[in-house]
Amino acid sequence: MLPHSLVAVSLATALFTPLSKYAAADDTAAVKDSFRTGVNLVGLVNMFFTAAFIALAGPAAMVVGGAGFEQARALSLVIIAMILGGPGVLAMIPALLVVTVLVGMFAVGLGLMLSIATVYFRDLGHLWQIFNQMWMYASGVVFSLNMLDSVQNRLFDAGWQINGAPIPITTMARLNPAETYLEAFRSCLYDFALPSQPVFLACLAWAIVMLTLGLVFFRRHSASIVEEL
Predict the structure, then answer these.
(1) Strand partners of residue 166
(2) Which of 35, 198, 212, 216 is 20 to 30 A removed from 205 (C-alpha atoms)?
(3) pLDDT at 7
(4) What is the pTM of this model?
(5) Burial of 207 (0-12, 13-18, 19+ CB in 10 A)
(6) CA-CA-CA-CA torsion sign (129, 134, 135, 141)
(7) Distance between CA atoms of 56 and 43, rounded to whole angstroms?
(8) What is the DSSP code string of the chain?
(9) Within 10 A of 165 (CB to CB), how many other CB atoms are there?
(10) What are 27-51's pLDDT values in tens digits?
(11) How much is the CA Rg of the chain, to the nearest whole Å?
């Protein structure tokens, strides 16, 4: 994750500006070239890091785990298998690709709307960083949403209720699209199973709705971007 966070995130952030400029100018070819360059650079750098991790799996196991040679060799095989994904993850690659495409559709739609909104409201970028942190923690990244059931019950016992029923905290949290996509990824990577039908349909619906809204919003307001800039 460290190479990805240092390389992929940095390059993607740097690409946002030219991508927005080319998109505003209706230069589709330049958008494709810029995007292709970024993807190639990220893939190239991560490929070298992956090869380095595989080559240094044994020494890393000895340093981090304090193991002897035989133990380090056995542990290095486990590390290499985890890097390559293992049989369970490899079997889930088609499902992961589908979920990743749906996440990309959702992100593109959201990005198109934010790119226009940022032109009219310059402080939105700073506010979005704060909101993004709150959104991340509310999506169940660092805790299971099942924990909210006990919170919901304790609030009900304390008198917090709606028409005699508990406040639907868990239900409201599950309406978060980020939580839905995380649930799909957890099913593929942790349970080695396909996402449930409700989760997959929710992922598909969020992707289609957000991409459609983003395209409509961007096409409606992109012509006036130059005047605002």
Answers:
(1) 161
(2) 35
(3) 62
(4) 0.60
(5) buried
(6) positive
(7) 20
(8) -HHIIIIIHHHHHHHHHHHHHHHHTT-HHHHHHHHHHHHHHHHHHHHHHHHHHHHTHHHHHHHHH---HHHHHHHHHHHHHHHHTHHHHHHTHHHHHHHHHHHHHHHHHHHHHHHHHHHH-TTHHHHHHHHHHHHHHHTTSSS-TTHHHHHHHHHHHTT-EETTEE--HHHHHHT-HHHHHHHHHHHHHTS-SPPPHHHHHHHHHHHHHHHHHHHHHHHHHGGGHHHH-
(9) 8
(10) 888 877 877 777 777 666 667 666 7
(11) 22
| Calpha distance 149→22 (Å, rounded) | 47
> In this structure, are residues 173 and 179 in contact, taking their beta carbons and an 8 Å threshold?
yes
How far, in Å, CA of 196 to CA of 86, rounded? 22
Ramachandran category for residue 43: left, alpha or beta (phi over 0 → left; psi -120 to 50 → alpha): alpha
pLDDT at position 67 is 53
Distance (Å, whole) CA 120 – CA 131:
18
pLDDT-derived band at 137, boundaries 50, 70, 90: confident
* Average confidence (pLDDT) over 70-78: 62
Q: Which two tokens stand for residue 175?
A: 């309406």
